Fold these 3 entries.
Entry 1:
Amino acid sequence: MSTLTPVTPQSSPSGPMAPNTGQRRRGKTRMDPTRNITAAGIAAWLLALLFATPVLWMILTSFHSETDAATNPPSVAANLTLDAYKEFFGASSGVSPWPPLINSATASILSTVLVLVLAIPAAYALSIKPVKKWTDVMFFFLSTKMMPVVAAILPLYLFAKTTGALDNIWFLILMYTSMNLPIAVWMMRSFLAEVPEEMLEAAQIDGAGLLLTLRRIVAPVAMPGIAATALICFIFSWNELLLARVLTGVVAGTAPVFLTGFVSSQGLFLAKVCAAAVVISLPVLFAGFAAQDKLVQGLSLGAVK
């Protein structure tokens, strides 16, 4: 008598040798990272070109004559000339731009030096040697920038007129220092907080005083932050117009005030204003390119813990 053994169904093999069952499996589509990087690069270049277009247009307009610069729509293929730059340097009027440029450089550089001299010890006390309720102190510094300058311009004008400080470059330096000091303290505090405490403790054990510690230990480590703070204070001082317009005149007038003198209610002035803006912007551009690596390193300092 024969016995029948039940046949168990065998499972189909899996893996690369599995037969085609006719069923299609839907896989996930992976995005090409190279394509994403290329698209982001193109978008960045387009955005940079969008922001740079007004500057490039100003430079192009400065090389046009007043008649070509005032056409509507503007003439891109017009003849190039240096008449606007000659007018800026006083070829026909005889008014030299060098005194206002020197006044701007003097006020910007000296006020930046004073800001650093005052901001570094203050930031050292608020970061490395923290005081009680240092956050309240920092917000007090920042709150002084929340009041618009136009709200304080009348008391400043009356004070300068009473004390005989009108049209005085030293009073303008004092105003620029007080204007940039809160921002400098706020920035330097975050930079100095990155200084390793072990270095300060070693300097203290070796008997170094406060000034020696600031000069030999803190300053070299925080140099990128100091350079970034100095450049920002210099740019703010160089571009400031309202205080210089109200508190100065012929003697202490700055470059932005001199630039506004080309704007008149009669005649054409667009090419001259563009030429003046290009020349006045060159010191800021040169300073930015010279301290470019320090600026990027300083502004990114403390961003990643």
Entry 2:
Amino acid sequence: MSETPPNTLQHRFDGPEDAPVLILGPSLGATWHMWDRQTAELSARHRVLRFDLPGHGGAPAHAVSSVAGLTGRLLATLDALGVQRFGYAGAGIGAAVGADLALRAPQRLAALALVGASPRFGTADEYRQRGVVVRAHGMDPMARTAPEQWFTPAFAAAQPAIADWAVQMVRTTDPGCYIAACEALAAFDVRADLPRVGVPTLVLVGSDDRVAGPAAARTLVAGIPDARLAVVPGAAHLAPVEQPAAVTDLLAGHFAASWQDTLTALAAPAPPPAAVPPAHVPTPAAPPAAHRADPYGPGLRLRREVLGDAHVDAALDGADDLTRDFQELVTRYAWGEVWSRDGLDRRTRSSVALTALTAGGHLDELAVHTRAALRNGLTPTEIREILLQAAVYCGVPAANAAFRVAARVIRQETTLGD
């Protein structure tokens, strides 16, 4: 096991020190123990490195809120260990890290396996609501639903000890790190980048996976050149736990074959460089005149992050000749110009918005921004304090109406599945 500096990941090695390194990345809420049943066989031919996500499995709670940030932590860990080239298999968010590795550091990746993976996991709204629920209730709601998310009903019923292991594993995860990982998955989307994945890739999925199922796996295979698909019958999202023998055989075969193909390609002599005719060197052109970028695109992205895709889609799809210009104005000015400024963080901006909307009696917008405040990290307790403060300065009747709206929204947003 490792001692973990803040910029690296908790990890452990199994297998011969001189064997090729194979990394196994965990799913959200799980620890490296989800790969226990694969490690014994894979470590006979590989130096297996397993890692924990921040705040998982007792790892230090140094939260990371992007897949690229997790990839950077993993690469920093490998650099510190002197590992330059490796194979990688990851599940769930661990698979997202694998895809990011293939795009950012393809020269270091010998082969790749994506397990229970998707080029985009669900919707951003779904993962951000998980963060709202965890801020309100802690990890217990996520822990209680873990067996039904991870395993088929038959397996969970037949293996109560493993189902309980799953519950306890999620329950002991650091809430802040879990929320940050949800933010990472909310922003993860590599659909347009799949053709750039140039390493031998196996896409492995449980036939009953409800998190990232066979349809998502087929999207990956269709987009990644020469990727192969393996569907494991009788398995859900944590296929390595539910069907360990099948998953182990598929991974062992993939990495054995892919590593040999890679070594053969590396050993082949490079073709001689082509002759390059002398080129005319043109006179450098004058630099283009500086221009201010249109804030609409960044504003739309920020508006979606704060208010949610469903709300923004409804507003834009419902625009007509009368309101279309107003929607563009809101996106460009309120979100692209004001909300995107560096002077205040999003929590503070949400606090200001709630106060101003309470004072103005704009209850429909107050409902929208109560949801946004929860997504931006304010807890129900903090929203209560903001509205109490508003009662002093904006008036008790205004705050009374605001409390009714906020209570309804908080009840909806902090109930899992609503």
Entry 3:
Amino acid sequence: MTGTLTDADVQRMARSGMPPLSAEEGVALFDAALASGEPATVPARLDLAALRRQGEVVPLLRGLIRTSGRRTAAAATDGDAAAAFAQRLTGLSAAEGREVVLDAVRGQVAAVLGHGGATEIDEDRAFLDLGFDSLTAVELRNRLSALTGIRLPATLLFDYPTPAELVDHLQARIAPEPSFGPEALLGELERLEKGFGELVITEEVHEQIAGRLEVLRAKWQALRDTAPAAGRDGSPADEDFDFESASDEEVFDLLDNELGLN
């Protein structure tokens, strides 16, 4: 049973708090179990320090391990790590944020599998092909939960079977919403204007689009009517509405309600 264990397997078992037994230890414990007369026994080595470091102890072992104060400290440490990781994503573009999440996931995958570095992990290769089994899948889930501060399911690696899919899922859950100010809105309007020139639409769709645009025009007029009389520098506002005078909140409300953008 133990003859095929690799160094990575042994290291993983040690991190789990249950280091492997030698053949001599296993046989001795087997004999002790038979002699005990107990209907069910669990011969195992327990590394209590490693188990405490995991923060949350599985229910089966809670009678053996005291973690009240340590558990609170571990939870606080995990919370700080999750906050720091979220901060790293703040202000990044979607592409930049994905690279940060990808590096983190690949690093955790490499640590669980015992690889020398994250560069050895192919993001498009299935976790099963990378060498994951049920135990290592749970270990990676636990590591990512601590890193992100998100409670992730035990089936995480089966729901998202490649690192790339897992990264996209995690980024969608933890990355801050990108800012969307006036310049971004002007870019969207330019893209929309260009799209109109390429459309071939039916009369029914034409009426739907015209109706939405009319509502949007009314909303925009309402923004103009409530805009400050002077610009940010105190100079009189132009007769035409100055886009810069609209607050981000007003733009967000307009886009969220009418264009579905945020």
